């Protein structure tokens, strides 16, 4: 299965990948139901891109994430215009042993970011560390330039939060702007180059869960 890149951030489920992504815009007062018949068996890792919403009496704002992994549907309500990145992790995902207690939500705070390939840094938002077994969600900070050619053992979807990138793979190069997303199958040799003049941020989800720093160097596949 080859990579898949879209400009609008929506990557539906497909054969050979246990991951999906839908970007959901909500007007003030609008509601979104998570779970239910259509998503039966799927876990949903949700990141608030913009705005504020209510979930179970709590207020969630931009830069926060939460997990919906129950069969019982849950409704979220936007209290301001909002956008959500809703990642799905299907039942065929391998489940990692939980390493920490489940949290109701997680907040982005890159002050304690960990290091990854090519001077990159990241914060894990959801994963086995806080009660999410099927996948890991992270926000990564990518400085200008490119990391070496590399691949991962996991299946991944990366959404570009801001900045501009060039995605390099065996078939050539494609441009990515904010709001673009790319599905990167396991062992796909690639580079996601920051072509803007400042740090850019990416939002990623991958399965099996683990560390975003787990990368393997490779030779140029072209």
What does this structure look like?
The protein has 222 residues and is mainly beta. It contains no helices and 21 strands. It folds into 2 domains: 4-89, Jelly Rolls (Sandwich), CATH 2.60.120; 106-217, Sandwich (Jelly Rolls), CATH 2.60.120. Strands 1-18-15-20-13-12-11 form a 7-stranded antiparallel sheet, with no helix packed on it. Strand 16 (164-169) and strand 17 (172-177) form a beta hairpin. The protein is globular.
Keywords summarizing the entry:
single chain; 222 residues; mainly beta; Jelly Rolls; 0% helix; globular
Layout of secondary structure:
Elements: E1 4-6, E2 19-26, E3 31-34, E4 43-50, E5 52-55, E6 58-61, E7 64-68, E8 74-78, E9 82-89, E10 106-107, E11 114-115, E12 121-126, E13 136-142, E14 150-151, E15 155-162, E16 164-169, E17 172-177, E18 181-184, E19 191-194, E20 200-207, E21 216-217
Antiparallel strand pairs: 1-18, 2-9, 3-8, 4-7, 4-9, 5-6, 5-8, 7-10, 11-12, 12-13, 13-20, 14-21, 15-18, 15-20, 16-17, 16-19
């Amino acid at each position: 299965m080859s990579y898949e890149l879209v400009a609008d951030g929506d990557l539906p489920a497909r054969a050979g990948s246990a991951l999906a992504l839908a970007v959901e815009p909500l007007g003030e007062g609008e509601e979104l139901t998570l779970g239910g018949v259509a998503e039966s068996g799927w876990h949903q890792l949700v990141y608030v891109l913009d705005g504020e919403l209510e979930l179970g009496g709590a207020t969630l704002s931009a830069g926060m994430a939460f997990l919906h992994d129950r069969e019982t549907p849950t409704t979220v309500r936007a209290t301001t215009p909002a956008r959500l990145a809703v990642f799905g992790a299907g039942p065929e995902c391998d489940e990692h042993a939980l390493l920490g207690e489940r949290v109701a939500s997680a907040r982005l705070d890159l002050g304690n970011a960990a290091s990854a390939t090519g001077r990159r840094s990241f914060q894990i938002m959801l994963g086995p560390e806080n009660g999410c077994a099927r996948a890991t969600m992270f926000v990564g900070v990518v400085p200008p330039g490119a990391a070496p050619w590399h691949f991962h053992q996991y299946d991944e979807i990366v959404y570009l939060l801001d900045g501009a990138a060039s995605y390099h793979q065996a078939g050539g190069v494609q441009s990515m702007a904010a709001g673009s997303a790319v599905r990167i199958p396991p062992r796909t040799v690639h580079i996601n180059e920051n072509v803007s003049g400042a740090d850019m941020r990416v939002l990623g989800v991958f399965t099996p869960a683990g560390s975003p720093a787990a990368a393997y160097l490779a030779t140029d596949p072209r």
